[in-house]
Amino acid sequence: MDIQAVILVCLAFAAGGIVKGATGAGAPLFAVPLMAMQRDIQFAVAGFVLANIVPNLWQFLQYRRALEVPRFAVFFAAAGGVGVGLGTVALAGWEPDLLVFGVGLVLAAYVVFRLLNPRWRLTMAAGWRAVVPAGLVAGVLQGATGLSAPVSITFLNALDLKRETFIATISLFFVTLGVVQLPAQFALGVTNPHLVLLSALALIPLMLGMPVGAWLGRRLPQVMFQRAVLVILAVLAVRLIYSGIA
């Protein structure tokens, strides 16, 4: 990548860190699409693995005591671990253009769903029935496209969890996915030591952005912040769909 592409990717990770600091999740929504546009989807997904494990482990250790029903979080994470293994196989074998197009569709679906169903809610009883399928599908999306948010974040948001419980649950989910994803990517030739080093370096702008996001999250209306995020994601979705078709 040239210097402009490197700067753009660093800004994407910083923006992802801001979103994560403010809401507890969502960092890949910015970084993965922009990295995919600069190189390819395998590079984008592999480049985000460490950036997924480290900050989520940090957040989980901070908020683990907020887990009101630990067994629910464990079921969700375990199902995601199975799914991410299947998704990584797809990442290694499918056509890159098809996966880029898929990322665009996933982003577009997420934006449309959030706009049409801003107050969609699930009871905890319904959540228990859906926890394994939701975790499995979210894991597959994470492994194949690097983006599980349309299922993982939407599912947990619909349960109307407390902010601390949400962060603890989603953090455990992403740590589990990363622990499965990294060796699977090595085994299938998706990643290599060079990409792991780049992923480690990407932690710098991401971790710097998180305190900024936490500060903004305490001061800006959550609705305003979420709308700004959706506008940016919509633009990225259109760009990725166009790239996949072109």
Q: What share of the residues lie within helices?
A: over 70%
Compute the number of helices: 11
Mean pLDDT: 82
Order of helices and strands: HHHHHHHHHHH
**C-alpha Rg (nearest Å):** 16 Å
Biggest sheet layout: none
Structural class: mainly alpha
What is the 3D form?
Answer: globular
End-to-end span in angstroms?
21 Å
The proportion of residues in beta strands is under 5%
Unreliable parts: none
The tally of beta strands, per DSSP, is: 0
Record the SSE blueprint.
Layout: H1 3-23, H2 28-38, H3 41-47, H4 49-63, H5 70-93, H6 96-116, H7 124-145, H8 152-158, H9 163-188, H10 193-219, H11 222-245
Describe this structure in a few short sentences:
By secondary structure, this protein is mainly alpha-helical. Helix content is 83%, strand content 0%. Helix 1 runs antiparallel to helix 2, helix 5 packs parallel to helix 7 and helix 5 runs parallel beside helix 9.
Describe the structure.
By secondary structure, this protein is an all-alpha fold. The chain has eleven helices and no strands. It has helices spanning 3-23, 28-38, 41-47, 49-63, 70-93, 96-116, 124-145, 152-158, 163-188, 193-219, 222-245. The longest helix has 27 residues, at 193-219. It is globular.
List descriptors.
11 helices, mainly alpha, single chain, 246 residues
